[in-house]
Amino acid sequence: NTMKKFISTLIFATVVALGLASCSKTDANLEKISGGWYWNSTEAGVDMEVYVAFHTDATFDLYQKLGEGAFRHYTGTYTFDGETLKGIYSDKTAWAHDYIVTISGNNLTMKYVGEEVSITYVKKTIPFTVRHHHTEPLKSMADDYVPFL
Fold first, then answer.
1. Between 13 and 57, whose confidence is greater?
2. Please, what is the Cα angle at 142 between 137 and 148, to 5 degrees?
3. Is residue 28 within 8 Å of 44, Cβ to Cβ?
4. Burial annotation 56-68 (CB, 10 A radius, 16+ → b, else e)
5. Per-residue pLDDT tens for 57-99?
């Protein structure tokens, strides 16, 4: 009976330790990617700016501006296992791509899974003017306002 109790306690302790270890690993991955990131480019004569903030509670805020006008704001949740980044917008739409992520210093490179396309963001605090002076996306938006991720 003492042996059964010991084995039960040992199994319970192992399960708890594994659970805590997996939480710690997940938290470490979320910590690694957390913060504000910025990317800009000009394609076909159109200026594009994107800010994305990954939060340690596995939520994100995306602000994008294509051409003139205001930034559009999108939210949702994401998963990051230390290599692959996936996300879902608040309206339950999946991101257009999953990404293989590498972080080097203040650079975050997101490579489309299965493609050669990659984008490198620079660590940057999202300005107050972007966070507080944006336009919420509308269901009737034109296709050029499709979320960037």
1. 57
2. 60
3. no
4. eebebbbbbbbee
5. 999 999 998 888 788 899 999 999 999 999 999 999 999 899 9
